[in-house]
Specification:
Layout lengths: L2 E5 L7 H10 L5 E6 L12 H13 L5 H18 L5 H13 L5 H20 L2 E2 L2 H4 L10 H9 L7 E4 L2 E3 L5 E3 L5 H11 L4 E6 L20 E3 H9 L11 H5 L4 E5 L8 E4 L3 H6 L7 E14 L9 H11 L4 E3 L2 E2 L2 E7 H4 L3 H12 L3 E14 L9 H11 L4 E6 L5 E7 L3 H17 L1
Parallel strand pairs: 1-2, 1-7, 2-4, 3-4, 7-9, 8-10
Antiparallel strand pairs: 5-6, 9-10, 11-14, 11-15, 12-14, 13-14, 15-17, 16-17
Bound molecules: aspartic acid.
């Protein structure tokens, strides 16, 4: 079995955390190790990548960044000392600083140094082989990863040792370093897993797995043991802060499961994300609801026009106005002659009046209503389709709790139900769904 293991910032934040990683990767199968830059050791601490971005911002405005840079340096020097490493960090930092001062270093290069140095230290500590992401992860000039060339490069790695790769960056065909989006080490792990046809991609973090709901709303919510890729996609799109959204594409393509594990509690089963959970569901019946998430602050524009439901092309004309203003539409609930367009308030804030004027001019509605401060809550579950009257149960729960529903939308695959409520009812609604579909089922 081949496993790609990725350790996030908190898993490599200190010498103590490095020791935990060493213990975890003792297992022979865990051969390819991707690391993030050092994260926070405590609440008061800073993430190395944040500090490096700040150095760049300070330099841009000619403000001294020495303290910030030294914080990064001190962190790595402490790790080196506590682990008894030999890596010449003074030299590494001198090289970074002198070329940064001369102004011949790109921002991407500078901010990628966190991952680079963590991987260098980790490789020495594990007696593994350091493989620079710049030598294997190839970006095309359009910013997409060139998987074919990346695969060729990875095939050339020949070693019996553990392979330690920095996450978050790669290089353009001209050799220039290019970083991914923030949190991109998750993506690196996924790409490596795809390229070597791994059996599993383990993503090590500082929580026991994905929770059913946000712990800041629900006190100690249950962990999700298994979730499929489609459920995860809806949950992360609708607001859950789990894996980096782009991290699933490369592994999903090859049907490779992702296992979320806790570096600080490695014996916990974590959460397994896979394409199809049906075999497991036969043995371990899932909850009706896998996860609950959502976001506040949506705007609903409702257009009422007599006979519009029978007018071919009406909807197209309406949505094309939003397209013109580059506003992404979340949902379009329709009833007879009434069309509602739901968008994130922040995406329309600057042009709301223009959009409304355009709709009035081009569509000529009988009535147009704009409502904001709406929250959208997504209730997601692969088991929901086996439950007759699921949306009825949800509605009556809201009724019992005196929560007014503004919109309700169930996807045709019955994987999710999205409910719109007033912002003020957001937390209450999530709590009542959790109590009814998770807590009650547990008892
Ligand atoms: N270090 C990068 C960040 O903080 C990438 C990562 O940790 O995944 O965004």
């Amino acid at each position: 079995m081949i496993k790609v293991v990725k350790f996030g910032g908190s898993s490599v934040a200190s010498a103590e955390q490095f020791k935990k990683v060493k213990d975890i990767v003792k297992e022979e199968d865990r051969k390819y190790i991707v690391v993030s830059a050092c994260g926070k050791e405590s609440h008061e601490d800073y993430k190395v990548t944040d500090l490096l971005y700040l150095c760049e911002a300070h330099a841009k405005y000619h403000v001294s960044y020495d303290d910030l840079f030294n914080q990064v340096k001190d962190k790595y020097l402490r790790i080196k000392k506590e682990l008894g490493l030999e890596i010449d960090l003074e030299k590494e930092f001198d090289t970074i600083l002198s070329s940064f001062k001369k102004g011949n270093m790109s921002m991407d290069y500078l901010v990628s140094r966190g991952e680079y140095l963590t991987a260098k230290c980790m490789a020495e500590y594990l007696d593994g082989e350091f493989v620079d992401a710049a030598d294997i992860i190839v970006f095309r000039y359009d910013g997409e990863v060139d998987l074919d060339n990346t695969k060729e490069n990875i095939k050339r790695i020949k070693t019996d040792k553990k392979v330690v790769i920095p996450g978050f960056y790669g290089a353009l065909p001209n050799g220039m370093i290019k970083v991914m989006k923030r949190g991109g080490s998750d993506i690196t792990g996924s790409i490596i897993a795809n390229c070597i046809d791994a059996d599993i991609y383990e993503n090590w973090t500082d929580v026991n797995g994905i929770r059913v709901a946000d712990p800041s709303i629900i006190d100690d919510p249950m962990k999700i043991p298994y979730i499929n890729y489609s459920e995860l996609r809806v949950l992360s799109y609708r607001g859950a802060n789990v894996l980096h959204d782009d991290a699933t594409f490369a592994v999903r393509e090859k049907n490779i499961p992702i296992h979320i594990k806790n570096t600080n509690n490695p014996d916990n089963d974590g959460t397994i994300i896979m394409e199809d959970c049906s075999e497991i569901d036969k043995v371990q019946k899932p909850h009706t609801v896998t996860g609950i998430t959502g976001r506040k602050n949506y705007t609903v524009i409702t257009i009422i026009k007599n006979h519009s439901s029978t007018e071919i092309g009406f909807l197209k004309e309406l949505v094309s106005i939003f397209e013109k203003y580059r506003i992404s539409i979340e949902s379009v609930p329709i009833t007879v002659d009434t069309f509602s367009v739901i968008v994130q308030s922040s995406s329309i804030a600057e042009c709301l009046y223009e959009v409304v004027a355009k709709i009035k001019e081009e569509i000529k509605p009988d009535e147009l209503i704009v409502e904001d401060r709406m929250a959208l809550i997504a209730v997601v579950g692969r088991a929901m389709k086996q439950v007759p009257g699921m949306s009825g149960k949800l509605l009556s729960e809201f009724g019992r709790n005196e929560i007014n529903i503004k919109v309700i939308n169930q996807s045709a695959d019955e994987l999710s139900i999205v409910v719109g409520v007033d912002n003020k009812d957001f937390e209450k609604a999530i709590k009542c769904i959790y109590d009814r579909f998770i807590k009650e089922e547990e008892n």
